[in-house]
Amino acid sequence: MAASNPAVSIQVSVTLQASTCGEKSPQAVAYAFTSSGRFLTRAAVSGEGATVLNVPAAGAAREVRIVVGPEVEGDQSPSLSELTRRGASEQFVRITADAKVPPVIFEIPSEIQRCWIRRCLVQGTLLKSVITGGLPVDMPVCGAEVQIWEVEPIEIIIPKLPISVIEKLRQIVLTPIGPVNPNPPDPAPFTNVAALSASLQLAKPVPTIASPAPSSPEYASLQILAQTSDAESFRQALLSNISIVRSWLCELIPRFVTKTLIATTTTDRCGHFQELIFPGCLGSSPNLYFTASLSFYGFSLFLYAPTPVACYTHWGYQCGTEVTLYTDSIFAPCCSPCAPVNAGENYVLFRAIGGVDLSSIYGASPLLPSTPLGLAAGAVVVGEDSPFGATLLPRVEFDSSLLENGLASYYQISYWDTTQSQWIVLAGDIYRHYNEFVGGQLVTKSYLVGPQPSAPKPNLFAIPPALPPVGDWAYPNPANDLANAQFPTASLPTGSTPPTYGLYQLKLDLFDAAGNEVDINAAGIKYYVPSSVEPDGTINTVDASTLSLVSGNSMIISLYVDNRPTQAQLPAVSTPVDSTASDPCGILHYNGPGDNVDIEYVAWQPGNFLDWNLYVVRGTTGTVASLAGNTSAGSPGSPVDFNNTVATLIGSCPQAAFGVNLYCQFRGTDGWSRLGYGYDSSQSIAFALTVPCPQTKPQ
Fold first, then answer.
1. Which of 258, 375, 514, 696 has its CA 20 to 30 A from that of 230?
2. What domain of life (predicted)?
3. What is the CATH number of domain 7-117?
């Protein structure tokens, strides 16, 4: 058995220069690494500035890195890169088994010592933002691991750029190009997976920088230098214009940006995270980039890792400030929103229909008039009103005190059936979901809200508890997981020819554990509607009874429903000579440039809930005439006219072919998204204009 090599003792002497401000020097630690960076040993430096490192000797001479830097807590094998990032000093020492190593002497300036103890509080929130009608509904992503990376300062990157890249930047300065889209489409195979959530639009990660304005004085000065200076002088000019160069690192030369993982943390149930980091010694403020991941059946699945890195780096992060990260991953586990509710004790907040708050619905809002009753203001198009349609998902939030104090256990939401003149309970299944860790893996389980099979009477729905049986509430599909009922408006019985339309009422009732209707006055329960949202997310509310929305023990709201689709028709085109009615092939003659060309069209929705566009395209030259509107034009069988002269359409061409395209977009909403499929309509036709052939006299 071969004898082990003896240890070689290396004396290390460290002088910590005194600070001019009288600051106490930090604890210094000496480390030994192999020449390739593998950790060997470490020892704390005494108050006298001395310590000894016992390094295993090898059979042959070898080189060892001796590093003096800050104390790295809780790390049995410190990283050489982490130490050098924080400003540690190093020297190389040659050692052999039988040779004495001279003392290794370090002198550490006070400025470097400050880097050793400099800390920075990093905090933020990871959200999945569901967008409806252009308005976001933010859902916290809980239980995700957030990785915090420090990005190398641009002042370090530019001096390392090769001359070829400097010349490329020179050409960019001289000939500015448009911005590159930092949010390209999802690569396969995730395109098909993402299609599963096509009904909901998710906010994409937000870039942190914008392209420079070529019209700015700084850009103009840089252009002059790009024309007159050599490569190294131009490199120095780039260093003086960091804010401009930053966007080019993002969009055009991202491969030169490097990052180092410096900390990890985990989001809480509100999506918040915070961590105390040790920034690097380069630059006064750290440049931070974030990623987030989740363990998914043994695999680490990234929820947030936008690229290029430079586009999403928080350059010059100010310690303690909040960063907000938006993930568009369909795998991100959403938890219950944590926004406080500004309402009285024992509140019941009828929050929204899908993503449309009641504060945006006429007759249920303290901010809007009562008419047009039941329509949603700006849910699809800003400044225009929308009806509801398809399956609606009402949202109600209950004060936890209702269950805790035994005031109410169940609820029902009903609609008034005009054909039977009675309230009908909305009895579609409603589920919540919750996350729990099973064997270290995150598992999502379902929780039945109702109808509860063991309830004391049929079609009762359980008021969801503040916490699930284990773990935390999760919202893999926010639209369904926030719902408290299903209102299938398209399949309701109607006294007239389908589809359904008109004013409908929804009624909310509470029941105790025995299935008895709750006397809300005796129980001290009040219904509320939302009014506004504070910058910190707090939901302000108004007592629903002040809006005449409470009747007895029930809260009743009105919704205008319209499931009637749009109709787009292009029945005919005519000139004074011809018409497509007589020539369906569409070859129309004209006598002169002043002749009228009449395009008949119908853009119709019975309730006027549509936005439409009509375009006339000539050959390959583009649009030559167009119309648009947000109310019906004509009706089926009774078209209106779009008149243009031949000269307007044909331009300089003696004859030309045309395409006419009419698209009618329905303005209805299900509360989460605009209703398009089955509601929108379009039609396209084509025709040609030509002069009549000259008449020839018979011979």
1. 258
2. Bacteria
3. 2.60.40.10
Angle, to 10 degrees, between the axis of helix 217-228 and the axis of helix 242-251? 80
CATH architecture observed for domain 567-690: Sandwich (2.60)
> What is the rounded distance in angstroms from the CA atom of residue 250 to the CA atom of residue 121?
26
H or E segment and range at residue 92? strand 89-95
With a CB cutoff of 8 Å and minimum separation 6, the contacts of 439 are none
Confidence of residue 133 (pLDDT cuts 50, 70, 90): very low
DSSP 142-197: -S-EEEEEEEPPHHHHHHHS-HHHHHHHHHHHHS--PPP-SSPPPPTTHHHHHGGG
C-alpha span between 285 and 333 (Å, rounded): 32
Phi, then psi, of 649 in degrees rounded to 5: -85, -40
Topology alike, domains 7-117 and 567-690: yes
Contact partners, residue 472, CB within 8 Å, separation at least 6:
142, 143, 269, 335, 336, 434, 435
Instruction: Please give the backbone phi and psi of residue 322, each rounded to the nearest 5 degrees, phi first.
Output: -90, 130
Residue 483: how many other CB atoms lie within 10 Å: 26
Which residues are paired to 551 by β-bridges?
554
- Angle at the Cα of 556 from the Cα atoms of 554 and 200, rounded to 5 degrees: 120
pTM: 0.72
pLDDT digits (tens, 9 = 90+) for 555-612: 999 999 999 999 999 999 999 998 888 888 899 999 999 999 999 999 999 999 999 9
pLDDT value of residue 188: 34
Q: Say how many C-beta atoms besides its own lie within 10 A of residue 170's C-beta.
A: 21
Whether omega for the bond prior to residue 189 falls within 30 degrees of 0, making it cis, is yes
Q: Are 313 and 287 in contact (CB under 8 A)?
A: yes
- At residue 211 the predicted structure's pLDDT band, cuts being 50, 70 and 90, is low
Judged against a pLDDT cut of 90, whether residue 228 lies above it is answered with: no
Distance CA 542, CA 530 (A): 6
pLDDT of residue 257: 81
User: Is 190 a residue whose pLDDT tops 50?
Assistant: no
| Domain coordinates in residue numbering, the chain | 7-117, 120-326, 346-562, 567-690
